[in-house]
From TrEMBL:
One of its GO terms (molecular function) is transmembrane transporter activity. It comes from the Bacteria. It comes from Phytopseudomonas argentinensis. Residues 3-381 form the Major facilitator superfamily (MFS) profile domain. Pfam families: MFS_1 (PF07690). This is MFS transporter, CP family, cyanate transporter. Keywords: Membrane, Transmembrane, Transmembrane helix. The chain crosses the membrane at residues 39-61, 73-91, 97-119, 131-152, 158-176, 203-227, 239-260, 267-285, 291-313, 325-345, 357-376.
Amino acid sequence: MKRQTLLLLAIILLGLNLRPVLAAVGPLLDRIQLDTHLGHVGASLLTSLPIVIMGLGALAATFLRGRFGERRGIWLGTLLIALACLARGLVPSATPLLISALLAGAGIAFVQALLPGLIKARFSHDAGRLIGFYSCAIMGGAAFGAALTPWLAQWLGWSWALATWALPAIIACLLWKRAAPADEPTTSGSAAPLNPWRSPRAWLLMAFFGVGTAGYTLVLAWLPPYYTSLGWSAESSGLLLAALTLCEVTAGLLASSLLARCPDRRVLLSFVLVCLLLGLIALVLAPLTLVVPICVLIGIGIGALFPLSLVVAQDHLDDPRQTGDLLAFVQGGGYLIAATSPLLAGLLRQYTNNLRLSWLMMAAATLVLMLMAKRFKPGSGHFHTR
């Protein structure tokens, strides 16, 4: 029991380390651009590049599992995150920042590609709820990164404020090394390998996760700069992102707790997508006067949508290895889709000096998600094996 509890703590701590390296950048972006001469497109790459690498890493999950194993691969990924954070303090200039973004993306990819399958195998009877809590830990890490980094920057400067996030990653490395279970060999009696590339349902799940996560990455990268352009300080915009992320965590926890009562996930999906749509519309029409409703509505929408997207995918299969392969495919392609969101927003800001069009585009994408969610009837969807 003690070892199982330690493993649970390690999983939560791993989740907490998967977003500060991204969320910490937004509130300081104006200052970083001023000191490093990064343009709006270059600044957007600090978020887009890690997400692209996260997607490619997820697609390579089977290779990573075979090459490193889950225990060593997750440890290596966490170490890469720590090194990426530390590099930002040591070499605070444009090119090294972009390289650190690639390094962080690789580290996050290792963890996200390997950990869901391990959760499904070790906690098979409660995997859906634990994946939901793990997803909430990911969003909680984003809240800490957004809220604390601007205040640390006042004392340490922006580069070493970003570097401080190496410390929790190092702690996670040490805890994982002690708590991680030994890798289990694949048995000949296990289910046949899954080939998601041949399944229309797998592509639908991937697109749903990708478009939904595009909203998360767009807010993560550009909400603080949007509000600083409206006259807010870096500290205030960071606190806004942190408050929104706390709403995300709360919504994710509530959604995860309600899973047992809602076998038809479409009920929860419909509610959270309506919240997201209303929040995005308010962000365009009245970003200053409706800031609290915006924070709550977008927080509910994004916060519950992220874990629900993963849970809906893992609902389709019972075998842990097949589930890991499906989630790797869904997250891999999904993150590649999501990576385009901050980049497009950066391009729009560079040529129009306005982010409102980006929020409108995400609102239109949310309407598409509503149509897609109608197809997730319990028991539907078929998968091919190779």
